Amino acid sequence: MRKILPDLCLLAAMPLLVYSVHRVFLETPIERQMGTAFKIFFFHVPMGWLCMLMAVICGIAAGVELRRRSALASAVALAAAEMGFITGLGVLLTGPIWGSATWGTPWTGDARQVTTALLWLVIVAYLLLRHYGPRSSDRLAAALAIFGAVNVPIIYYAVKLWKTTHPSTGVVASLPPEMWASFWPGLIALALCSLGLFGLRTRQLVLADELDAAWVRVEDNH
Amino acid sequence: MRIVRQAVLLLRSELRQELRDFELLLSAGFFTLVLLAMFYLSFASLPVKHSLPAVPAMLWLTIAFVGVLTLTRAFDREREADTLRALLAAPIERLAIYLAKAALCLMVLMLCCLVLVPGLWLMFPAGSAFADQPGQTALLVLLGCGGYVAIGTLFAAGLATGAGKNTLLFIILYPLTTPILMYALATTRALLDHHPDLPSFLGQMAALDLILVALAALLFETVLVGAGPNLSRKPAREGRPVRR
Amino acid sequence: MEEVTPPPSPPSPAAAAVASTATTPATAQDPAYGPAVGRSLADKEKLRELEGVASAKSARDYQHVILAYGVLWALFAGYGIFLWRRSARLRADMSDLRRRLDQKTP
């Protein structure tokens, strides 16, 4: 069951994605102040949440990797970082598109935008270190991932510390019920899609590790 | 107490080494002057109201650049003489090594700020608040540099142990230290504006510094020497490894 | 937006002159016919202009929405292709390993 879980997640995500797009465009009223561009919100916010979730998963897996030198934890951390990169890039691209349509400026420079960009930079730094660092840098990369995960609550706290033009956390809380009903399918669909891809990538990395070990045994026996 | 005693001993050894040729201090100090000159050439013509947000940026950008230079040089010495491995093999608490190195880098940065802050005050009228509130300025600089050095020492040490490339320190350090630098920027702006919430900002910086120091201290030994035996790590194969 | 039923257009001056001279006392006196009431021409033009602004914003918003959704799908599709290629490489490596083992075993 565990082996086919990523495939099941992806299969479940397909119809849910179609349904959520249908709900967002055909059954959700147009938001009074922001107009049609508000439709971007229904996928922009889930991508932001998923980016932070992946950063936390990466940090926790990195902690396990440091503690137990586990290859599975290392694979989970790398897969989570890659998924965090994708979702973070999605947030950083759709956010300015929404901002450009709604407030006339793509980058308002407020705290949440900037700290999300910083979290994404930390994820990119982790990926660069994993791919281009020396052999001994896997522990260093794990420490970097842990620091990156610690940055995630700072993102939320920074919203309270500074005055911001980004919609406050109250935007989601104050949505009317029919918009909430359109928000959740999109969130669940994107979450299933991301977790499915994350699971597939983890499986690939574990398989690559096992293949490496098998080659070493074959060459040793040669 | 044993850790503190060992850290003080190591710090004294580091300082003794530094006092022989002042290499770290002179290079960091000179780099600070160069950056100050470049900022002056770039922004001297700014009107006062525009230089007000520029002064915190200049202060913390300089500290960020000088900090990387200091950390790189501090650990290059260990790498060249292979003394870090000897330190790790010695019966010394690893935390003491971390505290000693971090304290050395912090001292060097603070000495550079003795040049930087008065330089900014002299060159830019918006920096006059530094002279009006010397105590708060000193505390702000100490907290900002402390947080920066807390993270930087961990990663510079990690890169120094293996065949780490120094350029990786830039890739790692700047994204990780930007949150503490953001707090420092906002607090410096509050100081220049004589904001009433300045003590609260300084308190939050102190709390963030404590978190960063605690986390870095916790990870130091594991990053440098690893934790326990290798449970499932497989040796690398020769020949054509599969691309991940 | 609620539908606006266009009011009956007021009669032109010529028609009004003809009507006034025509022997149709029933039109002038008939209570079923009231005076024409509606928006002025200026109001109608302003309304048309505002509707134009709203539809232009709506069209621009749709472009942004399509761009944003396109970016998201492209990212996921790109990562999916990346995973597929990596899988192909792993399968090729596995078949190499199998071939190598088959060569070694008699």
Quick description:
Chain A is mostly helical. In chain A, 81% of the residues lie in helices and 0% in strands. Chain A is built from seven helices and no strands.
Residue share in β-strands of chain C: under 5%
Report the β-strand fraction of chain B as a percent range.
under 5%
What string, H for helix and E for strand, traces the elements of chain B in order? HHHHHHHHH
Question: What's the helical proportion of residues of chain B?
Answer: over 70%
Mean pLDDT of chain C: 75
Shape of chain B: globular
Tell me the series of helices and strands of chain C, N- to C-terminal: HHH
Written account of the structure:
The complex is a heterotrimer of chains A (222), B (244) and C (106). With 222 residues, chain A is mainly alpha-helical. Chain A contains seven helices and no strands. Chain A has one domain. Chain A has helices at residues 5-27, 41-68, 71-102, 111-132, 137-161, 170-173, 177-221. The longest helix of chain A has 45 residues, at 177-221. The relative contact order of chain A is 0.17. Mean pLDDT of chain A is 83; it is low at 169-173. Chain B is an all-alpha fold. Chain B has one domain (2-40, 49-225). In chain B, 82% of the residues lie in helices and 0% in strands. Chain B has nine helices and no strands.
Task: For this entry, give a set of tags.
heterotrimer; A: 222 residues; mainly alpha; 7 helices; globular; C: 106 residues; 0% strand; rod-shaped
List the helices and strands and how they pair.
The complex is a heterotrimer of chains A (222), B (244) and C (106).
Chain A: H1 5-27, H2 41-68, H3 71-102, H4 111-132, H5 137-161, H6 170-173, H7 177-221
Helix pairs in contact in A: 1-7, 2-3, 2-4, 2-5, 2-7, 3-4, 3-7, 4-5
Chain B: H1 2-21, H2 23-43, H3 48-81, H4 83-89, H5 94-123, H6 128-132, H7 134-161, H8 167-192, H9 198-225
Chain C: H1 13-21, H2 25-29, H3 41-104
